[in-house]
Amino acid sequence: MNSEIWFELADALKEPEDWNYRDDYLEAFVHPKTRIIPVESLFRPWSEGEKTELPFARQKGYLLSDRALHMRELLNQYGLEIPPEMQETPDHLIIELEFLGFLLANGKGEEAKAFVGEHLDWVPELVENARGKLPADNRYLKVLQEIEAKIKEYFA
């Protein structure tokens, strides 16, 4: 399987250098009414541990969940660093896609499949959220839809 597609999709989510896409970027990731935040923790219960007694532990919408800590550990295991600007979101979709590409580029297909099942099964919910906020012609909505389609195509 081609690992490059995952790096390309991750790059497509980053802030554009091309001003032609600037409005779509601002609409998708900055504007308060339409902003989407492609971070796994926000779509998961904050903790899935049985012994966690915090009142918000089972609620969604919080950063640095168990999944984020797991991503941080996975990246550490492979000697990969989280960019300084993303330290608080080690489970950002860009990082997860780049990690998937890394696994595939290094011949770790089984690990990649397990990773998708453990860490990218929230993408359909993200895409649905984006569809409800962004116009159909928004470039970043299209990228998210392509990510969802590629995950289904390669890992379903």
Automatic annotation (TrEMBL):
Species of origin: Carboxydocella sporoproducens DSM 16521
PANTHER family attached to this UniProt entry: CHAPERONE PROTEIN YCDY, DIMETHYL SULFOXIDE REDUCTASE CHAPERONE-RELATED
Record keywords, A-Z: Chaperone
InterPro entries: DMSO/NO3_reduct_chaperone (IPR020945), TorD-like_sf (IPR036411), TorD/DmsD_chaperones (IPR050289)
Gene3D superfamilies per UniProt: TorD-like
SUPFAM superfamilies noted in UniProt: TorD-like (SSF89155)
Pfam families in the record: Nitrate_red_del
Protein name as annotated: Nitrate reductase delta subunit
Source organism, top-level taxon: Bacteria
